[in-house]
Amino acid sequence: MKVKTIVIGYGFLGKWHAQKAAALKDSCELVAIIETFEPNIQKAQADHPGVKVLSHWQDIKADFDAAVIVTPTSLHHDVAMQLLKAGKHVFCEKPLASTTQQSKEIDALAQEKKLTLQVGHSERCHEAWEKLSEYFKLIEKDAILRINRYAPFKGRATDVDVVQDLMIHDIDLVLWLTGKDVVSVSAWGQKIRTNHWDHVTAELRLKDDITAFITVGRNHVEEERSLEVCSRKGLVKVDLFRNTISHAPADQISEGVFTQTESYAKRDHLLIEQTAFYASILQRKAPMVSGRDGVRAVELVEAVLSALETRSTVKIYG
């Protein structure tokens, strides 16, 4: 059985999602691509000559089961709600919606309709997390996480700030890897090249006295994507740019050796996400990243933005 799927949006990321949907021939049938920008329409037609390319998903004559939403974030809520009301499963790229309220509405409707809702937090797909799964289960009180995600200016996504564009990846990672709730958020930032926040550092205080410092920037002099955890058990650093794991445990590894580094394989994150999406539909199991996960990430994005604007600590309750 295959999941008849449409991809909504054929921009930079949408074209890759369409490619993955077309490649997963055992579990997915790409029925149509939805796009309104003429150059993208032409590219979609050239890339997928056997697939219908339409301006509106309501124009699809054939039936379909699911949709992959890769539109601008401002459209996520309306598009997702329409599809869920029509009884379609939804894979929505991050963030789930522009606001927490909109995200909650999407998640609630998916649960009411008993439909699969998966959110595209693709940073969960690194092999590093599987290699370190036992380690992260052992994260204890007083641990410190430090995440850096920055690069030289590339001129993209300047209509939003780096919290919504980049930091949301790391917020989701912190919640997922630690399994802890955030109790307060502080943040500091700069608006450099745009009218939005271009460089931000946030401090997330979690339960069990775990602290996460996240720095994101799009006007840096170098590119870095890394996560490190320091606790009484030692320090682990994952270089997400170079695909390496470095470990300095509390005791020596062997005679005279105190650190070790190993590499891990790169993966096709979008392919992994879509494979999981179709499996969750066909096997009726929980999605890889749930709607609730998407809601929590958006909630904390709003908390970081509030801390930036008010220059104060935001308390998180519940």
Can you characterise this structure?
- The chain has nine helices and 15 strands.
- The mean pLDDT is about 95.
- The protein is globular and about 65 Å long.
- Strand 8 and strand 9 form a beta hairpin.
- About 35% of the residues lie in helices and about 25% in strands.
- It folds into two domains: about 5-125 and about 270-290, Rossmann fold (3-Layer(aba) Sandwich); about 125-265 and about 300-315, Dihydrodipicolinate Reductase, domain 2, CATH 3.30.360.
- The longest helix has 20 residues, at about 290-310.
- It has helices spanning about 15-25, 40-45, 75-85, 100-115, 125-130, 135, 160-180, 270-280, 290-310, and strands at about 5-10, 30-35, 50-55, 65-70, 90-95, 115-120, 145-150, 180-190, 200-205, 210-215, 225-230, 235-240, 245-250, 260-265, 315.
The average pLDDT is 94
Name given to the CATH architecture of the largest domain:
2-Layer Sandwich
Which structural class matches the secondary elements?
alpha/beta
Q: N-to-C terminal Cα separation, in Å? A: 41 Å
- The CATH H-level superfamily of the largest domain is Dihydrodipicolinate Reductase, domain 2
Number of domains: 2
Bulk shape:
globular
Predict the CATH topology of the largest domain. Dihydrodipicolinate Reductase, domain 2
Helix content: 25-40%
Strand order, sheet with most strands: 14-13-12-11-7-10-9-8-15
Rg from alpha-carbon coordinates: 20 Å
Taken in chain order, the helices and strands follow as EHEHEEHEHEHHEHEEEEEEEHHE
Report the count of strand segments: 15
Mind telling me the CATH class of the largest domain?
Alpha Beta
Describe the largest sheet.
9 strands, mixed
Strand portion: 25-35%
- Helix count? 9
